[in-house]
Amino acid sequence: MPRNRPVRAAALVLAVASPAFATSAPSSLPQVAWSQMGSVALGGAFSGLDWWSSSSSFSSSSGSQPFSTDGDTLFARDASGDVAVLGSTNSGGLVRALCYANSTSNGTLYIAGTFSSIGSTSAANIAAYSLDTATFSALGSGLLGPVNALFCDNANGEVWAGGEFNASTGSNVALWSSGSAAWQTVPFGGLNGVVDTIESGADGRSVIFGGAFTTTYLGSSSAILVNGTIGSGNVTSVSSASANTTTTGNSGYLTPFIYATGAGLTVTAGPSASDAQYSNPDVLLCPGAGTWMAADNQEAAIDITSTSLMFGTGVRVANGLVDGRATDTFCVTSEPDGTLLNMTYYNTTTKQNETCWYDCPLSYEVEAQDYIFTDGPRNMTSLHVVLHTWDGAGSALDWIQLLSEGAYVSAVAANNQGSCAANSSVGTTGSWTSERSGNQSYLSATASTSDANAADLTLTLYPHIASAANYDVYLVVPGCDAIGDCSGRTTVDVEVFPLQGGLRYTSTVSENVEFNTNILVYSGPVDASSAAFSPTVSVALPSSPAAVTGSTYEIVLEGVQFVFTGLGNATSSSSSSTNATTAANSTTAGNTTQVAYGVFEWNRANASVNAQTTLTNTTETALTQLGFALETAYRAAGASDWSVNAVASYNGVVYVGGDFAASGNYSNVVSSGGSSAALATEGLNGTVLAAAVVGKYIYFGGDFRATETSGTSLAHLARYDPTASAWAALAGGVDGAVTGLAVSGTDLVVVGNFSSVTSANGSTSATGGYAVYDTSVSDWAAPGVVYGNVSAAAISTSSSASTFLAGRVYGSASNAVDGVATLTDSNGQASISTLSGAIFGTTGSAPAMHRRAWARRAGDLLTRLNSVLDRSLMARAAAPALPALPAAVAPAVLAGAFYKNGSTAVTILGGNFTADSDAIEGVAFSENSALDGTAPVVTGVVRALDVVGNALYIGGSNISVDGVGSGLVVYDLATGSWATGIPSLGSNVTVNAVRARPDTNTVVAAGTFTNAGSLNCAAVCLWDSSSAQWSTPGSGISSGEVRAIGYAGSSYDSVVVAGSFVLSGSAAHVASYGFSNASWSALGTLPGPATALAVDNLNASNIFAAGVSTADASVYLSQWDGASWTAQNSTLAAGSVVTQLAFVPMESEHAARGAIESDRMLLVSGELYLSGVGNATAALFDGAEWYPYLVGTTSDGGLAASASLFWSDASFSFHVRHYLARGLVVLVAIAIATGLILLLVLLILLGTWLARRAERRRGPVALDEKDGAGSDGDVSSTHQHVLDNVQAALAQTLAVGAGAGAGAAAGGAGRRTSGESAYDDDDEGAAGLYAGTDDEGRETTMRYDFDGPELQPGEMSMRAGQRVVVLDDEQSDEWWYARDPATGREGVVPASYVW
Fold it and tell me: Which residues, in sequence order, are bridge partners of residue 1391?
């Protein structure tokens, strides 16, 4: 057998798990009873095989359009799998997008791309196809540029188009109204870059655009002074100010600066009250620590001083209301510059924002009040506060907080530790040093330029953020001039992690700055610090830092500044639980802008905005915040080709895919919902081109192979589970890029630049660029095959439920078959299915010097007839040359056979193919959905196979096996080795046919050879397998070629050959050789060379031959009646090539016509052109009428030729199976059941009476006998129980004759004992248990394969489609006793496996 035999159990599981896809023959075709022939397959040079249909493009009456050869084709596929071409673009035209609109009864299909016409209608890059009228129409004057995306908004009667074009109604975005049939002005004016995708927002109230563009939004440099909604980011802002605090603008969201007690902080105040309880100034640093009082009736001063810089944008002051005391007015001066600060505050009396200098009033009515430095943030070393006036005996304060610009964290850990509870922190790896330069404190680290990675330098800062909001985040970097380290300054990698469960934002920045510099590293939402989460900023030495002039790299950091820019999802602090007061009617001190990249969400509520100018921040959405993040990463990465290609919404979250990545953060896919977030394992490792939602999963397609970090294999398709945050593959994926996804119920339609899919069990199926994944079973469905790449898909929502596809496609077929298909039937209906696992490459087994393409047109047939395939033959033969065989372009299966490997059927294939990286070549063994081959391989084109015992005879064109031989070779299937010692038929010859003569040792080989070793043996030679010798059949044929052979006579008395050869000095085309008299005789005269032959059931007086006339190249089909030939054909047109004739049994009888009986038809195979009908790969002929039956297609969409129909049952019956009417069957079954029940009752009574009588006669039983010693034991299994009862009870009661009665009287002497089987010996044949009985049982067929090593004694192996006679179905509901009519074997089979 093959080189590597598969493990039986595993192979059986694989076969069961991988049923072949099948399509049933339409009722309009004659139904062939394929199962009567055993296993049946058809080989040829086809990539697809379908039932012939009058609607096919190969039908002369269909009127269907052909697929384009130089443009994109738009076509529809209905629910039954039928394909109809709707139209094609101009040469070179491309279709990039489709969408379906339900605006009419059947709907309208919109088509867009890059084309100037489609379906002969002029249209500039966009068009519509009416499904009501089947016509194309242009959309106005079209769009002047490529269109990449379409979205049919059926709810609003609109069609959105996006791409790269300029239109008067909008740039790169266009809007078509289906109601007014006119272009509309885009409400937001268009976008400033290419648009690649358009989708509906989750609630249908918005439209989302993705691509390579930017949008700009208004921000504010003094956002803390702006009241109301500053933005709608993806965090919810809650004021951190304590209860009953009067805030100014958004000051309640600012984090107080940390007074670092470990950084030389001092607090002085005086004069102080004499009461020690109120004289400690340290209580002023923290809320709730106590109250400080000034001396009675004296102005007081407070100084909060640090040895390091403090950063502030205002103060929060709490009045000390003790013993009737309170501060009335105060002022603030910053040191060391001594500047008296102007401050803005909210006057609770006037309800207005006001400013103050020297006498700033402090309210008694609130706990605390905020004052913002009107001129902006200040750096200082000391905060000097003077209390000017007071109530009562003197002034008093509870606390004074310096408000930061948002938040600040120092790189020096000691500067983050204050006396209050809320502190920031720092973590490091590697060696870092705390340094000072003037009043600046910072951290520094160095690494050798020769081995920077060894230093492992990372600094991570954990700031205390009091309120979630939108912030700009800056690195505070000391200038190198003051420090004197410019020669070592380099780049650092920065990572900002702002949101819990969100994205990490990475960038690389240079620290080589001469002066103190704030470097922006992030702009967007930041979560508040909590016990569960803290935002982080990390700085690290890159793996490849920027070059420096010195020998060491130096990195430094003073701190990280968070600058508040706006609120998140909150309009004011009054809605929060803090009950803080928000100042009204504030003014903006200055505006800034933020840029979003790649995404834009237009909400219909914002009727008219201009997306090409600065948008107000009231138009921002959560998706905008993702755009801000993408823009930040885009700029940091220095990218030039980022784009958003796909958008899908599910459960309030928008999933965005494309070509973008931030190392260590996200890759090509992110989500935007409550927060922007990377998906699990950082996303996908290649570009995402499509996204869709089915059920609770999001599906992505593109040019990726795995997840970014975990390496989960995904093969261009991925399923994301948002609940489990997990990725999963779609079976084995596809073998090329996926460019589009569409959803139809639970089916995911996948299109792109791929050619095959891999199922969950690992088997591969050819599909072309279109496939359907059934999400309900998590595996591929059977949509057939398209030849080419599909670029766009859309699904109809009308009752037709059609799928519309477009792309560079050349043809299609309902069944993808790589050169071979299996033919079966069930319930009287034939089916085509793929031979599971038979997948070949595009490289053939023919030697390179012999590979060439063949042109096959009717007009040049005469030219082909005058050509000679073999030069030596032309020089010697007087017979006309045979026409060339149809092109066997790889992969092509040209011959086949079947072999029984134990209980497993092996399909043997031969042809021009390779598989398994050329490890399989020329010959392949298909067993249990797996392919194997020979070693060494067969080179050349195999055209003939035959199995004789365990020997496989192989012939073909120029075949050879290294170290074995050429011409005809033999492979031992039992040992998996080549037989040697066979004299060669020649190295440059063709063996067209190899057929063993049954019940003899003779094998007949036929072809173009002239010798067998040294023996003269032209065209036909006989091999004796017992003596291992060649012999010449008679002395008649001297030269020529034989294409086909067949046997005639009840004992296979003669071999009939067809071709073009010289017989006894004269040209002949069909001749018969008698084995008994070793003589040849020509069978009449035919118009020209014969290419195919069929003998009707060994009847020498009913032979059919097909060929081509030498006079006019017409194709003939003739019948030999024992005396003369009669022409049968008036339908086969010139140009047809008939490669095979075979009689096949029919499911039902037809009127006997001509020489063909009513229970069979003649299957004519090859490349057929039927006059007035169309083209076919195979047609049925009933003696008078032609029925086109099968049509094969090549990989370029053309008509393909079939080469060989082969079957397993060499002596099948043509007898038409007749079945009783169902009602009558039921009545008979009831009668039989009633009789059997009565008989069974009588037998039980009789058995009981005999047992009791014997027991009484026997007397008492000894104790040692009760243990069953010496007995046969219990029945071993249900199977044996069925066997025993059937063989005893039925044989005794149903058999006719005294013998049966005697058997019954003998007490079941005919029963087999446990462990024996009714079919253990294959030689039992027809003389089985029921031989000679009147009741031959019910004949039916097997539904499934029943075989494998797990079979138990008594079980009979059978194959799906094989005939079986049910002898008893009464003894068990689960197991039936049956006979194999082909071999006579008997045994039990599962009832559920039988029709």
Answer: none
CB 165, CB 146: distance < 8 Å: yes
Strand intervals (E) in 604-642: 614-615
pTM to 2 decimals?
Answer: 0.66
Q: What CA–CA distance (Å, rounded) separates 266 from 502? A: 40
Q: What are the Cα distances from residue 1152, in Å, to 214, 454, 1159, 1213?
A: 77, 92, 8, 17
CB 847 within 8 A of CB 937: no
Name the pLDDT band for 619 (thresholds 50, 70, 90). confident
Q: How many CB atoms lie within 10 A of CB 1051?
A: 13
d(CA 1142, CA 1163): 5
Using CA atoms, how far residue 896 sits from 893, 911, 1189, in Å, is: 8, 9, 21
Q: Which residues, other chains included, contact 667 with Cβ-Cβ below 8 Å and sequence gap of 6+?
A: 661, 682, 683, 684, 685, 708
Residue 1141 in tokens: 């004739």
DSSP 1113: -
With contact defined as beta carbons under 8 Å apart, do 120 and 811 qualify? no
CA triplet 911, 864, 1134: central angle to 5 degrees?
Answer: 95
Q: Does position 1169 have pLDDT exceeding 90, yes or no?
A: yes
Residue 374 · residue 355 · CB < 8 Å:
yes
Rounded CA separation 893/882 (Å): 21
Contact 737, 755 (CB under 8 A): no
**Token reading at 601:** 């969400």
Strand partners, 207: 200, 602
Do the strands 314-319 and 368-373 form a parallel or antiparallel pair, or are they unpaired?
antiparallel
Q: 1272 Cβ partners below 8 Å, 6+ apart?
A: 1313, 1314
Sign of CA dihedral 1189, 1195, 1200, 1202: negative
pLDDT tens per residue, range 655-668: 999 999 887 778 99
- Structural tokens at position 1093: 């032959």
Digit-coded pLDDT (tens) for 177-191: 998 999 999 999 999
Spatial CA neighbour of 247 closest among 372, 376, 370 = 370
Q: Measure the N-to-C terminal CA separation of the chain; round to a whole number of Å.
A: 32
Specify whether the CB–CB gap between 302 and 385 falls below 8 A.
yes
At a CB cut-off of 8 Å and minimum separation 6, what does 1238 contact?
A: none
Distances (CA, A) of 821 to 62, 1167, 1192, 1361: 25, 17, 10, 15
In this structure, which amino acid lies at residue 49? L
Residue 588 has pLDDT above 70, yes or no: no
The pLDDT score that the predictor gives to residue 501 is: 64
Spatial contact of 1357 and 1315, defined as CB atoms under 8 Å apart: no
Neighbours of 1031 (CB within 10 A): 15
CA–CA gap between residue 1230 and residue 1232 (Å, rounded): 6
- Report the distance separating Cα 601 and Cα 608, nearest Å: 13
Which stretches of 795-870 are DSSP H helices? 861-866
Across the strands, what pairs with 270? 301
Six-digit token string for 570: 């909150």
Q: Which residue is it, tokens 């330069």?
A: 437
What is the CA angle 663-664-667, rounded to 5? 60
Beta bridge partners of 100: 109
